[in-house]
Amino acid sequence: MSVPELRHGPPWVMEDMIALQPGLAGPIAADRQAAAAIAEIAAGVAAKSAPIVVTGCGTSEHAAMAVAALLRDVAPGPFVVAREAFEASLEPQSGGLCLAISHEGETAATVAALKSARARGAATAVITAVAGAPVTRFADDALVTPTVDRSWCHTVGFLSPILAGGAIAAAFSGRGLPAEAVSVRISTILAMRDAAMDIGRRLAGLDRLVAVGSGLDLIAARELALKVEEGARSPAVGRALETQLHGHLASADDRCGLIVIVTDPAAHDRRQARAEQLLGAAQRLGMPAAGIVSEDVAASWPADLTSAGRLVVPDPRPAAALAAPLATIVQTAVAVQLLTVGLIHAAGTNPDRIRREEPAYAEAAAIAEVTAPIS
Fold this sequence. Notes:
Layout: H1 13-19, H2 25-30, H3 32-47, E1 52-56, H4 59-74, E2 80-84, H5 85-90, E3 97-101, H6 108-119, E4 123-128, E5 141-144, H7 156-172, H8 179-190, H9 193-203, E6 208-213, H10 217-232, E7 236-240, H11 241-244, E8 256-262, H12 268-284, E9 289-294, H13 295-300, E10 309-313, H14 324-347, H15 359-368
Parallel strand pairs: 1-2, 1-3, 3-4, 4-5, 6-7, 6-8, 8-9, 9-10
Helix pairs in contact: 3-7, 4-7, 4-10, 7-14, 8-14, 9-14, 10-14
């Protein structure tokens, strides 16, 4: 694993990686053979109603949640699930397909999950950025994404496997990933950088942040919380929208910020209405609030509901060339990255080594990463 460049001020390496993301879709779309091979396995497994488990750790776990959602869109059924890799290794599936996500292909828990699934008769596959990485030893097929993330506060490491999952889902239906449409969506969100920086300034200095979402938006909420803790070094949590409303408000006050994500087109009106209730409750408690919302939500909500501002993303539904779930996930993935950068700049932190340039954090990471050898 290469160590990120240690810069003394912005732009951080993380920002360089975010900026190059419009170029990811083309190479991933071009590798149709790898996507088709995994899609063929998935189709055979789905025809038998056998389990399809998508697994990973950290950012890769959130990407696994996204890939599972994309596969469920083309292969409906309760048998497509995302699982955290350590748990998947402890209780491996029997048969079916285990699709692992590991950006650099070295995460021990993910390797163990793939190895355990294979031992129980599952077909195995991996999405990784490193050809020949340790995780590939236990994979029947691999889809190798084009760019290794040069920052440990992963952004490319999140979006790349999502796009790979989109390519597999498209191949499942006999199509290819619409690279141009994806790139346009990414570029559209990147143009919102100034608005994201402003939100970051408004939320700076709080004791903690709570990010919430429902449906596909929960994926972005969880990833945002991880990026904030890694990059801005501020306590944060990602929760389901409804979960936040059941007891967690008891700890909230004007030192706790709220970020609500409402873009999923499925059951959209109900999700929007419930999010509006949460924002009303937050307003009563004096919580600073921001939003990542679709255009129709922005048009209907009073401005004071999101006192710290909002990022308004295009409605994913009219995009004929791009499946609505993929459009939703891609847009929110990039939006949370920009919002994180805003918080990082406001905090004055360097996200790239996720604090491991400091001896105590490097030593803590070394303790946490002691594992049995991969064989």
